[in-house]
Amino acid sequence: MAEGDFRDIFYSAQDGLTLHARHYGGDEARDGLPVICLPGLTRNARDFHELAMLLSQDQRRPRPVIAFDYRGRGLSDHDPDWKRYDVAVEAADIMAGLAVMGIEHGAFIGTSRGGLIIMVLAAMRPSLLKAVILNDIGPVVEGAGLAHIRAYLQRAPKPKTLAEAVEIQKAAHGADFSALDAADWQRFAAALYREKDGRLVADFDPGLLKPLRAIDLDQPLPTLWPQFDGLGAIPLMAIRGARSRLLSAQTLAEMAERHPAMEQITVDGQGHAPLLETGELPKRIAAFIARAER
After folding, report:
1. Using CA atoms, how far apart are residues 266 and 22, in angstroms rounded to an integer?
2. Distance CA 35, CA 107 (A)
3. The pTM of the whole model exceeds 0.85
4. Given 3-state DSSP classes, what are the helix, strand and coil percentages for the chain, each rounded to the nearest 5?
């Protein structure tokens, strides 16, 4: 990645933790509707690099793009209290970061946990949301899918090299992501790990697993239909991996019933969650945001 593609933003959360975000786009992108990118549970701002580059350097309509590292991920501080790895706390962190950057509203893209945070923001500060893209997440999280994620994270091998990390990810997720090529897998794995003391480590606080372990999957998971309904007046796109284990086709259909204007994309050959820089997704995302901006 070239120097100058983005600048790092560090800011303080309400409880004093130092948090990080990437800001893409120079003066030429200043007047475009900002795009705010929120990653999945253990992921970070690097997941959005290719998409952020495309959106911030679009010749027709460049726009600023901000990709966040939640607390305990990427370059953000780890939280000494694992109970604060919570969607509502993280939503407040996002609002604090946007306030520091002087961003009053934008188009929000949320992958997995990021989409849950968006639905919480719809209840807390709906004026922030001018358009929403939910990537493989909805108001109903399938327990079997969450169990799969928890089991993988608890037993994930520790790679020594990036090549080994790629093979680990392919072994764990390859059946759900047959559409990815070698470059896709390379980016997917590289964004998950960082080098520390000469070896690769997962780029998130292991304490994140404690809230996952605390979930009783023998009981029905709470749903967020009231929060989703709060998106009713906001332009909405929902993306689902055809092989997703977390967002069912049935939930997607009900989302469309409740939000008839919602645009839907089902991504063949990908599971949870589709890589947003692949295939036709960047063009469709850019076009959706442009329409919402009018």
Report:
1. 28
2. 5
3. yes
4. 40, 20, 40
